[in-house]
Structure formats: structure tokens, C-alpha cells
Amino acid sequence: MIRRALLALPLLALPFAATAQDAPIRSQQANFRVTTFATGLENTWGGAFLPDGSMLVTERPGRLRRVTPDGRVSPPLGGVPQVEAVGQGGLLDIALAPDFARTRDVFLCQAASVEGGALTRLITARLAPDSTQLVGVRRVLDATPAQRSGRLHYGCRIAFDRDGFLYLSTGERNERARAQRLDDLAGKVLRLTRDGRVPPDNPFVGRADARPEIFSYGHRHPQGLAVNPWTGSLWEAEFGPRGGDEINILRRGANFGWPTVSHGREYWGPRISREVSAPGMQDPLHVFDPPISPSGIAFYDGAAFPGWRRSLFVAALNTPGLVRLSVDGDRITGEERLLTGFARMRHVIVGPDGRIYLLTDEGEGRIFRLDPA
Hints:
A hairpin with a 5-residue loop joins strand 23 (345-350) and strand 24. 45% of the residues are buried. The protein has a single domain (4-19, 46-291), classed as Neuraminidase (6 Propeller), CATH 2.120.10. The protein is mainly beta. Strands 1, 2, 3, 23, 24 and 25 form a 6-stranded antiparallel sheet that branches. 2% of the residues lie in helices and 41% in strands.
């Protein structure tokens, strides 16, 4: 575990680290260079751009840092709560409130240790005016029940829709049956108001056998959430086992099938399910073949790469790299694999400059920036 006292130890800010790779890279719709934008990080997981152009970045061991527009990395911010930094757990995603410019509210997702084991936790706090610490930290939701065994599959991605509702993905903690249980918040995508209340139009409100926070269920390990800017739909990237990596469009009350239906296999070989589709279960929009172990996702409509407009970018952990999906409304029309084998990519973020920033899942973590060539 990471203790708050350790997080408060002063560290020197790292020098500007942006360096460009030599040769431009040609893709189907754009030529680009890879710039090493920032270094000196550890297992980066989530990031969010502030109005001043700097970026808040989470490190899975339990630290939150600010990276300036010229790539300098701050000491760890104060006020970050203790996390369960074991296995795949730790300090995971971060998102700014839609009205951050006025309130300075941020939301973070973490693995937390509680009586009975560990669970996915959503918290909120305010970023201090000098951006050096979090204040007013408050727990919003625990994805109960806690689980004693295993420290895997927390999910933990956050997104806000056009109406300001908050969505949180939770993994099934490597206990597959939990994904299909409606009295259990694991293996789900949850929909909340920003203060943690249940919207009255959630699909399972009023059912005695179901948790009212649930928006969709039957998920394994959802690590990507993003709102389609052209249609308003909510897209999800789901990390399968050996195969079975998916892109889904989330629907109210929909069952996405895990583990009853799956394109994936056990790590030792046999298929997990004989069926890849079943009545009453939502089929994936897209299945990656070969698999990529998808994590964070981001839609692109920026000015830096006109040829990449109307694309969805997917950070890939294994095989490491970046995947671009061509998008037409709520359809995927093509797939292009970029930077294959370059680095384990945990998240992809579109910056206010229209460039693409890639957070790596490495002990000596880096942030790469894609620049037009």
C-alpha cells in the first residue's frame, strides 16, 4: 500500500524532456512523428488536460502529478488518498468535472482496501488554486461487495456524457459470475449524478433484485470509456482474456454477455464459451483480431491531423501500440494499427493543441506526443 506520508515527500521537478524521433511515420491518412514529451513517471494510467494546457497524470503506485505544457513533471500532489497498489490496483483514472473551470472539481478512480478485501472506489476532490494538492477529498461510491481474493480487473475508467451524468466502469475482479449478477457492482458500467446519487431514469431503478447504479452489465475488464462527439453515444473498450477484445456501444440495461458469450479463449487454450452471440445479449460493435489488450480510448476531430478526423484511437497493451478505428456515426468502417511494438500504451488523450498524447504502462513511464510531419 502507498501511505499518504510517503506521497508527501518532496521530489525535484524533472527537466523538460521533449525529444523527437528522427524519421516521420506514414499512416493511411496522416504522416506523423513521435515526440517524447515527458519522462520520469511510473506506470501512468489516467490523464486530463487543465484549462491552462497542463495535464494531471495518475501513476498507478498512488501518485498524482502535473505535467506542464513544455513537459516538466511536478512533484507528487498532496492530499491523494491511500490506495491499494497491489496487482492491477492503485490510483487509476482521473476526469475533470464538466464545470471544472468554475468549481475545480476532479474525479478519480482507485483500488481501495476495506474490511472484507479490495474494491473499485470513485472519489471526488477540488484541485487547489496553486494546483499542488487535492482538498476536500470525498468518497462518492464503492463498487461493493469487496473481494478478498485477487487484485485484478478493477476497470476504473470515468466519463461524463452531454447531460453531465457520470459513468464509471468496473471490472469483474476476475470472478466471472459477478459480471452477470445485478445485485453486485462488479463487471458493470455505472451511471451516477456527480454527487453520487442514482438518476431516476437508470434502467434498474425500482427492482428489488438489482443495484440501481447499474447502466449496463456483463463486462469483463472495461478500461476505455468515451462519448462519441458526433452522436452522443457512449463507447467502451473491453479487455478480453486470450482474444475477445471488444469495442461496444453501451445501451441502457444491456447485457454484454461476459462470460456466457465470448470470442475469447482461456489462457491455456480452450474457448471460454461455445457461443459468441445469444438472444438477449448485446453483440460487440468490433472485435480485435488479433487481440490488442485495449485500454484507454479517445475520439479525434482535431485540426493537427485533418486526415484522422472522425477516428477512435485505442491504446494497446499487448501487442503494444496504438490502433486507429475509422468511424462513421456509430459505425466502424476501418482499422489501422500504428506503432506496433513501440511501448505498452495505457491511455490516449487528445490535447487542446489537437495533438495526440500517449501514456505508457512502464516502470520508467513516458508520455509520447504525436506531431504532424
